[in-house]
């Protein structure tokens, strides 16, 4: 009987030793899996954005694009993120919303720009969505919600516009997991601090939301899909340094001009 | 794997039935992919059908069943890992691919041993697998 146990242990040890040995090979690199994943994600993001272009008005006006782009570039450059890899899109829409798409697309609705009170608040939301992109939450959420097979069928064109519409709805009007949201919030605070942008307005924005959460109209997607705002505001404030040095994001004239442009567009 | 002299010389009919217990595994592996449980169920059913058979038949049906039990454990883990990836619970990574290759290598080795055992037992030659043979002796008495 003792002999049997020794032999069982030898078999187990052989299995784990083989596994550890095979694991030394970088299979991901060998099969170009990361590259294929990136290409699939880029194609998926492009399909969704092309669909947005057919149903919404994408703003190309430099007066509106440039100030928001400057916020994004500032956050990216301060955090060693290639700003050219992030595709910023401002969409004319009455829903107060911003969301990330696969393939590093960041969509901001004009209603969000007109609704927030300061450029710091808007920077906080941009940093939060940027964190979702950088932490690769977008594709993980997509696969979790609709499954890998559906994602592949959309990318290969077997699913038609219905699949793309479903993907867009999930990305624009449902929240990430609580764990992902917290991770993105804390990463956003780091991005803001590195960019010398005060993160407290972002927390105040969430605090403000929590007070009016019961009265949030249905079109306030970014608010209603990001629950537990009080808790979020608290841990954002807790992670802010006491003696942070911050610079202005936009002058008040430019900020007011941007809001006015978005309202009248 | 060791070729040993059995307690008695099995008849032609016994050799055929004993060989079938290994063939059952092979057919079930092919039919049951990718569900790893099918081969264990098929081998188990064959074992139950022959549990009152002669010692040689019972012995080989048991060895075939026991050898499948450990394969099923590693295959099931790989199967559910794959399902988790497809459902987006976990991302695909190097550990997963390495595990698949390891499991594939062990399955291939098991497959070859099973074919060899089926051929040998069909000739009435008694083959004992390392470890599994000893477990079978423990479980299957004359």
Q: Tally of extended strands of chain A? A: 4
**What order do the strands of the largest sheet of chain A run in, or round the barrel if closed?**
1-2-4-3
List unreliable stretches of 5+ residues of chain A: none
Percentage of residues in helical conformation of chain A: 55-70%
How far apart lie the N and C ends of chain A?
A: 83 Å
Estimate nothing, just give the exact number of structural domains of chain A. Answer: 1
Number of strands of chain B: 2
| Shape assignment of chain A | globular
Order of helices and strands of chain B: EHHHHEH
Mean pLDDT rating of chain A: 86
Q: Which structural class do the helices and strands of chain A define?
A: alpha+beta
> What is the overall pLDDT average of chain B?
84
The major beta sheet of chain B can be summarized as:
2 strands, antiparallel
Secondary structure: elements and pairs:
The complex is a heterodimer of chains A (265) and B (142).
Chain A: H1 2-23, H2 27-30, H3 33-55, E1 57-59, H4 62-78, E2 87-92, E3 98-101, E4 105-109, H5 110-115, H6 119-134, H7 137-146, H8 148-155, H9 160-173, H10 178-194, H11 200-212, H12 221-224, H13 229-238, H14 252-264
Parallel strand pairs in A: 2-4
Antiparallel strand pairs in A: 1-2, 3-4
Helix pairs in contact in A: 3-8, 3-9, 4-6, 6-10, 6-11, 7-8, 11-13
Chain B: E1 2-4, H1 12-32, H2 37-49, H3 55-86, H4 94-122, E2 126-128, H5 132-139
Antiparallel strand pairs in B: 1-2
Helix pairs in contact in B: 1-2, 1-3, 1-4, 2-3, 3-4, 3-5
């Amino acid at each position: 009987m003792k002999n049997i146990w020794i032999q069982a242990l030898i078999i187990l040890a052989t299995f784990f030793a083989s596994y550890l040995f095979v694991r030394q090979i970088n299979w991901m690199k060998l099969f170009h899996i990361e590259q294929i994943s990136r290409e699939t994600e880029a194609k998926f993001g492009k399909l969704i954005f092309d669909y947005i272009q057919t149903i919404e008005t994408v703003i190309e006006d430099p007066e509106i694009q440039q100030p928001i782009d400057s916020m994004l570039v500032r956050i990216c450059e301060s955090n060693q993120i290639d700003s050219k890899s992030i595709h910023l899109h401002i969409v004319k829409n009455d829903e107060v919303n911003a969301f990330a798409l696969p393939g590093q697309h960041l969509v901001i609705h004009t209603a969000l720009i007109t609704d927030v009170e300061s450029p710091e608040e808007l920077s906080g939301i941009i940093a939060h969505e940027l964190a979702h992109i950088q932490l690769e939450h977008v594709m993980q959420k997509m696969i979790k919600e609709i499954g890998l097979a559906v994602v592949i069928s959309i990318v290969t064109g077997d699913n038609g516009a219905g699949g793309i519409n479903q993907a867009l709805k999930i990305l624009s009007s449902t929240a990430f997991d609580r764990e992902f949201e917290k991770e993105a919030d804390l990463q956003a605070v780091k991005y803001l601090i590195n960019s010398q942008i005060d993160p407290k307005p972002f927390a105040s924005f969430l605090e403000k939301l929590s007070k009016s959460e019961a009265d949030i109209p249905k079109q306030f997607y970014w608010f209603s899909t990001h629950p537990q705002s009080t808790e979020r505001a608290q841990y954002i404030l807790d992670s802010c340094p006491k003696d942070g040095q911050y610079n202005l994001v936009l002058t008040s004239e430019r900020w007011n001009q941007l809001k006015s442009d978005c309202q009248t567009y | 794997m060791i070729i040993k002299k059995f307690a008695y010389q099995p008849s032609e009919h016994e050799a055929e039935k004993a060989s079938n217990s290994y063939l059952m595994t092979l057919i079930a592996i092919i039919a049951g992919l990718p569900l790893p449980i099918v081969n264990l169920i098929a081998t188990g059913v064959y074992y139950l059908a022959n549990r009152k058979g002669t010692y040689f038949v019972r012995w080989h049906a048991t060895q075939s069943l026991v050898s499948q039990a450990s394969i099923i454990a590693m295959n099931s883990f790989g199967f559910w890992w794959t399902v988790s990836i497809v459902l987006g619970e976990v991302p695909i990574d190097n550990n997963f691919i390495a595990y698949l290759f390891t499991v594939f290598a062990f399955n291939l080795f098991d497959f070859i041993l099973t074919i060899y055992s089926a051929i040998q037992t069909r000739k009435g030659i008694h083959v004992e697998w390392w470890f599994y043979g000893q477990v079978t002796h423990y479980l299957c008495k004359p």
